[in-house]
């Protein structure tokens, strides 16, 4: 990955997290102000010792910290990450959080999570309204699937047409691989040479897929040239974007895997490559210095593959996009919960390989600035942020909500000393999780490579 691609990914990550943090904290800030609770600080990122930028308006100091691990609002009279014991030792004031009724404090605490869910819904709905939805139906995968060593190990073969998974139809091809993983599929039904076969999926398969990290299920596509790299001579030989590989030294070639396997046999020689351009078949002499032509293939959903695949486009009117946005929030949340479940129940899934920090999150963004992908990922991260914050862990919103619900039900408020110690425990837990997740990133991307060398 080039330095430019790393910067683009990092830029998208920082912008996405900044948007999510600001909206999350607004979810606390707005109801606090509506209930006339004093908010002392509103910060994007944390500001231990100093801040990058700040100004004061009314009772609130607004600023940007230097530590990009989130953000916060400091609500007067509340035991939070600021651990302001001096303030809490003073008699309660009418404008403080602790002086307000439990139902008002509860609304303030669930505000951040609520806004994150609403934000995800809004983004999904607007994306559907603007872009619609493109997908390849499961029964329109023209040339079947392309397998790797892992999928071949369970009995799948190039060209198989997947009919059902656990005897259930998954209507969109791009959802099949995630369905197999998240639902820990036990069997895959495929059509091969006119027969329907039942492929059993071993219990260890999901763990192997996650450890492998590469896509294990892709649509088999004709090799249509999408772009060129510097590692070959195809472009200099006259090959153009949109050309389709049809032969190599007189032998018919149709698919990506066939071409890659065949090229290695001619490494160091000049190959005669047949290309279909429009209705004409052209021959090019391409030196294979390193066994590569220096071309990238277009995926099934690329416009260059239009003649081979029939993609379905579904448009949404404004009012149609609203329930569709709600449905997508529900699906995303459900899938995320299933992902977490895998860590605890799936055989062969290692926590160290499944949990990651900022590097893992940043790697989800594309290496080019694509606004549609950016907003899709931002919506998904907003759901993750909401889910993680509502967990009943002290120091998170969910911990505060748990204590407030206890107060609402029993009529007794937990003691301030108890809340203070609970906050300490929660902060230790969160710090431990933060170190563990980002430590995994360091191990995977830095230290493990050192040991391999």
UniProtKB/TrEMBL annotation:
<dbReference type="Pfam" id="PF02163">
    <property type="entry name" value="Peptidase_M50"/>
</dbReference>
<feature type="transmembrane region" description="Helical">
    <location>
        <begin position="106"/>
        <end position="131"/>
    </location>
</feature>
<keyword id="KW-0472">Membrane</keyword>
<keyword id="KW-0812">Transmembrane</keyword>
<comment type="similarity">
    <text>Belongs to the peptidase M50B family.</text>
</comment>
<feature type="transmembrane region" description="Helical">
    <location>
        <begin position="418"/>
        <end position="437"/>
    </location>
</feature>
<feature type="domain" description="Peptidase M50">
    <location>
        <begin position="13"/>
        <end position="432"/>
    </location>
</feature>
<keyword id="KW-1133">Transmembrane helix</keyword>
<dbReference type="InterPro" id="IPR008915">
    <property type="entry name" value="Peptidase_M50"/>
</dbReference>
<dbReference type="InterPro" id="IPR036034">
    <property type="entry name" value="PDZ_sf"/>
</dbReference>
<dbReference type="GO" id="GO:0004222">
    <property type="term" value="F:metalloendopeptidase activity"/>
</dbReference>
<feature type="transmembrane region" description="Helical">
    <location>
        <begin position="6"/>
        <end position="26"/>
    </location>
</feature>
<dbReference type="GO" id="GO:0006508">
    <property type="term" value="P:proteolysis"/>
</dbReference>
<dbReference type="InterPro" id="IPR004387">
    <property type="entry name" value="Pept_M50_Zn"/>
</dbReference>
<feature type="transmembrane region" description="Helical">
    <location>
        <begin position="374"/>
        <end position="406"/>
    </location>
</feature>
<protein>
    <recommendedName>
        <fullName>Zinc metalloprotease</fullName>
        <ecNumber>3.4.24.-</ecNumber>
    </recommendedName>
</protein>
<keyword id="KW-0482">Metalloprotease</keyword>
<keyword id="KW-0479">Metal-binding</keyword>
<keyword id="KW-0645">Protease</keyword>
<dbReference type="GO" id="GO:0046872">
    <property type="term" value="F:metal ion binding"/>
</dbReference>
<keyword id="KW-0862">Zinc</keyword>
<keyword id="KW-0378">Hydrolase</keyword>
<dbReference type="GO" id="GO:0016020">
    <property type="term" value="C:membrane"/>
</dbReference>
